[in-house]
Specification:
Length: 222
């Protein structure tokens, strides 16, 4: 098998902080990087535009797969404009921004696309540390998905999750080590209200992002 630095990788790129950081992580580790995004009727199309911009800046190809049937079968605040984003997490329940099975679907398409391009390394920016009640962000799921893709397509796929055990502050730190903090800070969208960069500042995604940023700043000035 080829060395990692000579292999090609496919990054799932959404336009958010996590996948943006993964894009640059992959560029450092692999010889050639491609990116894949999904248009699944998410609230903010701007996310995909930012993803395209990030990929372009990084000199990486970006393919967008349309999955517009997902919103027809999934009721959640990310794909249904009629449902307001819950600003507080209900006790013990995942937030209403959860799109059931999303990463399972994304990884399936990623596997098919990767195989067609002769790629066996897939990079996804999920994290169990701050997983916010999204079951398909957990390591156990990723391990299982890797096994399923291998069996389904007879490719020795490896799913890389560089953020799996990182906090949001450590994800900023990783962006710092990769020398891309400013790009990630300005050119990604995490906010549920669709405001890029530092966002609206009040939605749960913005608060989590800001909290991580503050911790990162505190640590780097200590
Ligand atoms: Zn926000």
């Amino acid at each position: 098998m080829k060395e990692q630095s000579e292999r090609k990788a496919l990054v799932l790129l959404s336009g958010g902080q996590d996948s943006g950081t993964c894009l640059y992580w992959a560029l450092q580790k692999f010889g050639e990087v491609h990116a894949l995004g999904f248009d699944y009727g998410q609230r903010h199309k701007l996310e995909l535009e930012l993803a395209a911009e990030l990929a372009h800046q990084a000199g990486v190809s970006f393919y967008v797969q349309t999955l517009d049937t997902l919103s027809a079968v999934s009721k959640n605040a990310l794909t249904s404009p009629a449902i307001a984003v819950e600003t507080k997490l209900p006790d013990g329940n995942p937030p209403n921004t959860l799109v059931e099975g999303r990463n399972l679907l994304f990884l399936t398409f990623a596997g098919i696309y990767a195989k067609s391009k002769g790629i066996r390394d897939i990079v996804i920016g999920v994290s169990q540390t701050d997983y916010s009640g999204y079951p398909d962000c957990r390591n156990e799921f990723i391990q299982s998905a890797q096994q399923t893709l291998r069996l389904a397509m007879e490719v020795d796929f490896e799913i890389h999750t560089p953020l799996m055990w990182l906090t949001k502050a450590q994800t900023w730190q990783l962006a710092g080590q990769l020398g891309v903090v400013q790009i990630i800070k300005e050119k990604t969208l995490t906010c549920y209200n669709g405001i890029p960069g530092d966002g609206c500042g009040t939605c749960p995604a913005c608060m989590l992002r800001q909290k991580g940023w503050d911790e990162y700043q505190k640590r780097s000035t200590d």
